[in-house]
Amino acid sequence: MAPYGSDDSTTTEADDLRAGRRKAARYVVPVAVVGVAAATIGLVPALADSGDPDLPKISAQELIEKIAQSDVQQLSGTVKISTDLGLPDFGGLGSSLTGGGGGSRSGSGDGSSADPSSKLTELATGTHTLRVAADGDDKQKLSLLEDAAEYSVIHNGKDLWGYDSASNEVFHSTVGDSAKGEETPDATPKDLTDEALKAVDDTTSVTVEGTAHVAGRDTYRLVIKPKDSGSTVGQITVAVDSKTGLPLKFTLTPSSGGAAVIDAGFTQLSYAKPAASTFDFTPPKGAKVTEEDASEAQDGDFEHALPGGGKTDEDFAKGLEGADGFEGLNVIGEGWDSIATFDTGGQGIPSGSEVGGDFGGFLDSLGDKVSGKFGEGTVFKTRLINALITDDGKVYVGAVTKDALVKAANEGK
Fold first, then answer.
1. Is the pLDDT of residue 227 over 50?
2. Span 23-34, average pLDDT
3. Distances (CA, A) of 205 to 231, 312, 327
4. Can you give the residue ranges of every domain in the chain?
5. Rg from Cα positions in the chain
6. At 101, phi and psi to the nearest 5?
7. Lower Cβ count inside 10 Å, N or C end of the chain?
8. CB of 400 closer than 8 Å to CB of 230
9. Per CATH, is 11-297 categorized as 2.50.20.10?
């Protein structure tokens, strides 16, 4: 089906797209109940009805405005998520790198297996099924379904609960009024779309390309593509509910081709008001309850500094400058080709032969040795984010190709 919108890069349209993108980025639908700032999440495609729906034509600008004006306050449904970053098989190294599989699940150590900030990192790899529900700004729930177990995050008023049925552990913290909407994880199709729209500028092509059925709803397909060739992002496709303007499916495909890196969407959806009891939670008898220490809680700045989690390049730099080991951080380039660079002040990553053993082999499997005017270094790759660490301790990282990182290091030298 031919595109509804055109890829016209005139100044007027570019200004309109930026205006619509700013409105969409400011709007927060209260379904932000799942995700990791990094947001490196993917979805098994939702089952679609046969045939595409016949909908009135709409321009890219009009569809962006429709997303911005969406006012969905209540919903419940099922989301399927998959992630394919192309990381190598960790094998026996996995448990040592994550603190020990069974140990971390049982809540050994200082942390809690029910803490959302650690538990929901599981969404960064593999395929997962989630149940979500929302009723306004104050009530959201996400349940991560596992083999013979379930993990839930419940936000109800000022209380944020995490419950891991496998370990019978509970995590509890209090949500302040000023932090509403930021305490729960953000990675629904709506959240991911908001982040993608922040990248819409003169370096971006935005079109409407056909329609689709998603979770029983008629949707438009909004397609966002970098115009330049240096990014690892091929395109982002968002299925937008034609009636409500709510993004129902988000798919990020890499410029290298193949399966989606991120593909998240609803397979079942209802806009009916969830029962009030959906958001009730009382710690089960015998459960270990961990209360968050307010004095150790993060203020959220670093969250927004993560790839995909910051509003601007300045936010990215500001957040990392406050973290240990990120002295003198700078963001070079613009838009999709932005690269964050900083100096660790130490030596680069040792080679696998220098380290030896399983961990040495693991390092070699991740990295490619490169050289240039900057000297020598190693590029560590995923299908989305790549990082060059030079032998003298400088780091270059972004959603760009290996060649783009080497070029940046050479110019930096």
1. yes
2. 32
3. 13, 19, 35
4. 11-297, 313-412
5. 22
6. -55, -65
7. N
8. yes
9. yes
Tell me the two tokens of residue 291: 């209360």
Length of the chain: 413
CB neighbours (10 Å) of residue 278? Answer: 18
In the structure, what pLDDT confidence band is assigned to residue 70 with cuts at 50, 70 and 90? very high
User: How do strand 262-270 and strand 247-254 relate by DSSP bridges?
Assistant: antiparallel
Long-range contacts made by residues 65-68, C-beta under 8 angstroms, separation at least 24? Answer: 65/20, 65/23, 66/240, 66/245, 67/24, 67/27, 67/193, 67/197, 67/222, 67/240, 67/245, 67/246, 67/247, 68/20, 68/23, 68/24, 68/26, 68/27, 68/245
What are the tokens at 176? 């302040």
What type of residue sits at position 156? N
The pTM (predicted TM-score) of the whole model is: 0.72
Q: What is the 3-state secondary structure (H, E, C) of 196-223?
A: HHCCCCCCEEEEEEEEEEECCEEEEEEE
Answer whether 387's CB lies under 8 Å from 395's CB. yes
The string of pLDDT tens digits covering residues 337-353 is 899 998 887 666 655 55
Question: In the predicted model, is pLDDT for residue 162 greater than 90?
Answer: yes
For residue 323, pLDDT beyond 50: no
- The phi, psi pair for 28, rounded to 5°, reads -125, 110
Interacting residues of 148 by C-beta distance below 8 A, sequence separation 6+? none
CATH of domain 313-412: 3.30.310
